[in-house]
Amino acid sequence: MNTSIDKSLTGEFSKSIWSKFRRGIEEYRLISEGDRIAVCISGGKDSMLMAKCIQRLQMYGETHFTAEYIVMDPGYADENRQRIIENAAALELPIRIMDTRIFESAEKAEKHPCFLCARLRRGWLYRTAQELGCNKIALGHHFDDVIETILMGMLYGSQVQTMMPKLHSENYRGVQLIRPLYLVREKDIISWAERNGLSFIQCACGVTRNEGSSKRAEIKRLLEQLRQTNPAVDMNIFRSVENVNLQTLISYHLGSDYHHFLDDFDKGLSIKGTNNFSE
């Protein structure tokens, strides 16, 4: 094992990465005894770090589970594929590379190629996980992704929603999606990569060339502005979806079951502690 990289997780980055990774695993019950996990590696910094943390947990943790470290090649350029191979070797990750033609299929789409690419990737990952006998697939989304998703839903999707730490697959019975880096900040992942002299691939498709024009990039810029006057803004946004009072919502739904505040309003039910911003 690369002792320098391994020690950095429990040394310099123990508090910012390793402890938060372990806390997310425990708090959201992401990994259980006997799990077989398809660890999905795109080649970027997030998925590579996630894979390294899972490998370390697999070796030294008290919960016994197995893992398949999968790299789906959607049609990477040779230099990007080679970079993934070199980084996996540096991290001593036993990756399995599987070739697909997803980039080729997505680039033929006249509308929403990025949406199609994401859909094809997700479907491939679920199918492959089932074929390998895995009951969970692990993705490398981090805390900043969660915050950005909440704001994107509100500002562009007209809904309050969040990126969940784990989900049941609707189409692949018995398979769950988990996000082990759920509580880890992106800036700490970047620091970890730089500290260990690692350089990872960025978005490598033939469609997404200008990340600065995307809606997610707009949200990133907005958050940077908000942090200048309120350093706690990210955690406040996160806590807001942990502390939802249904009695203060105009309407909400649980699946297809919809509720409106007028349903019970005429019953004269008192609502305590909700007048802070009213009357």
Give structural notes.
This protein has 279 residues and is α/β, with parallel strands linked by helices. It has a domain of 188 residues: HUPs (Rossmann fold, 3-Layer(aba) Sandwich). Helix content is 46%, strand content 13%. The strands form two sheets. Strands 3-2-1-4-6-5 form a six-stranded mixed sheet, with helices on both faces. The protein has a two-stranded antiparallel sheet with strand order 7-8. A hairpin with a 7-residue loop joins β5 and β6. α7 packs across α9. The longest helix is centred in the middle third of the chain and has 19 residues. It starts with a helix and ends in a 14-residue tail after the last helix.
Keywords, separated by commas or semicolons:
single chain; 279 residues; alpha/beta; Rossmann fold; six-stranded mixed β-sheet; two-stranded antiparallel ribbon; 11 helices; globular
Structural shape: globular
**CATH topological fold name of the domain at 3-143 and 163-209:** Rossmann fold
What do we call the CATH homologous superfamily of the domain at 3-143 and 163-209? HUPs
In helices, the fraction of residues equals 40-55%
User: What's the average pLDDT?
Assistant: 88
N- to C-terminal separation? Answer: 63 Å
Summarize the structure.
This protein is α/β, with parallel strands linked by helices and 279 residues long. The protein has helices at residues 3-10, 14-27, 45-60, 78-91, 102-107, 113-131, 143-156, 186-195, 215-229, 233-240, 262-265; strands at 36-41, 66-73, 95-99, 136-138, 166-168, 176-178, 251-254, 257-260.
